[in-house]
Design a protein that fits this description.
OB fold (Dihydrolipoamide Acetyltransferase, E2P), Dihydrolipoamide Transferase, Chloramphenicol Acetyltransferase, 6-stranded mixed beta sheet
Length: 411
């Protein structure tokens, strides 16, 4: 029986997506789980997998069309069965849409190279978009992806090395660290789709969710020792990060605090059965949250491998739908940036988010003597509609049991 495939909803606030590219043509065979199309949301370029096996009988929208969530985009079936094309909302083509924001005066720059014009080049949709945004001539970029495909990191490498002309100026003129004393001119730049989405969601979260915060300092000397011992005996690509331990510890602690692994459902509280930990990942245009599902049930090595793989795909703009949706609690870790303490904004509709700062070796006092010790501060932001200060404080205390006695995370 023919199956109609619809534009997926990725995130509670997603209303539409842009169909960037079809990976299969009409008449070609597609297997269940095989990538059928690439779509672009406000957050990322996502691969859409076919939920059924068969022949691609009909592609219902064109490449470049903006399609509302749940609208049919394709039909997969057998070669001889009769199919009926569903009636759908008209998909809006964005190929000719003016990208200049209304009322915004853009800087007077030379025309940007159009990466779409280089149709003979093999490049990911994200790489093409970044090339256009950063005014890089994509035809001069060497691809490092499969089959020489140009991916996001290739555009970033070109920009970092200033090997290619950007903004119409010679590379040497852009990369000079010498201060000439001349005043720079103002520039008004349009927001990227991801930055605009972050702006919209965070403004809504901060103004509509009553946040409160609880900070705790953890003794992580035993965790640092255990991590060092483990990392001595495994290959480089399998080494554990401090964040891997934190993900596992948070997931196990959430089992005891269902109000913090929850979301509002109208006037009711929906306590989630799964513990799906979202991890904020820095990407070129902002932040993207990837999701480690059932983190309370997975060993540390599996958590580490999954998060590394998803983070790499996020930075290349090649995430899957299930990798960026469905989190029930989030972690924002700025430990790698020498941060003493910070607070994070809740990622709606979740009840809380944990802001993790840097692990520091500091002087501490024990038994009247000063000696070095490892400490880490973390701050939980909680929606006061779902929980209260005492519960949040108890959560942070319970988290200490796992972070300060890390063998509990491996048995």
């Amino acid at each position: 029986m023919a199956e109609t495939i619809s534009m997926p909803k990725m995130g509670f606030d997603m209303a539409e997506g842009t169909l960037v590219r079809w990976m299969k043509k009409v008449g070609e065979t597609v297997n269940k789980g095989e990538v059928l199309a690439e779509i672009e949301t406000d957050k990322a370029t996502v691969e859409v997998e076919s939920p059924a096996s068969g022949l691609v009988r009909k592609l219902l929208v064109d490449e470049g069309a903006v399609v509302p969530v749940s609208n049919p985009i394709a039909i997969v079936g057998t070669a001889d069965e009769k199919i009926e094309e569903p009636v759908v909302q008209k998909a809006e083509s964005n190929k000719m849409k003016d990208s200049k924001p209304a009322g915004v005066a853009l800087p007077d720059l030379p025309p940007a190279p159009d990466p779409l014009a280089d149709s003979h080049l093999s490049a990911s949709p994200l790489a093409r978009r970044l090339a256009q945004e950063k005014r890089v001539d994509i035809s001069k970029v060497k691809g490092s992806g499969p089959g020489g495909r140009i991916v996001r990191r290739d555009i970033e490498t070109a920009l970092a090395g200033q090997e290619l002309p950007v903004d119409g100026r010679p590379a040497a003129a852009q990369s000079s660290p010498v201060h000439t004393g001349m005043r720079s001119s103002d520039q008004t730049l349009p927001m990227s789709k991801l930055r605009a989405a972050i702006s919209r969601r965070m403004a809504e979260a901060k103004t509509t969710i009553p946040h409160f915060y609880v900070t705790h300092e953890y003794k992580i000397g035993a965790l640092m020792d255990l991590r060092a011992q483990f990392n001595k005996i495994v290959p480089e690509n399998e080494k554990l990060s401090v964040n891997d331990f934190i993900i596992k510890a948070v997931a196990l602690t959430l089992r005891q605090f269902p109000n913090l692994n929850a979301s509002l459902d109208g006037n009711a509280v929906l306590q989630h059965g799964q513990v799906n930990v979202g991890v904020a990942v820095s990407v070129l245009a902002g932040l993207l949250t990837i999701v480690c599902r059932d983190a309370d049930q997975k060993p540390l090595r599996q958590i580490s491998a999954e998060v590394k793989a998803m983070a790499a795909r996020a930075r290349e703009g090649k995430v899957k739908a299930e990798e960026i949706e469905g989190s029930t609690f989030s972690i924002s870790n700025l430990g790698m940036y020498d941060v003493e303490n910070f607070t994070a904004i809740i990622n709606p509709p979740e009840a809380a988010i944990l802001a993790v700062s840097s692990a520091r070796e500091v002087p501490i006092v024990e038994d009247g003597a000063v000696k070095p010790g490892w400490r880490l501060k973390a701050t939980i932001s909680v929606d006061h509609r779902l929980s209260d200060g005492v519960e949040a404080a108890k959560f942070m205390q319970a988290l200490a049991m796992f972070l300060e006695e890390p063998l509990r995370l491996v048995i």
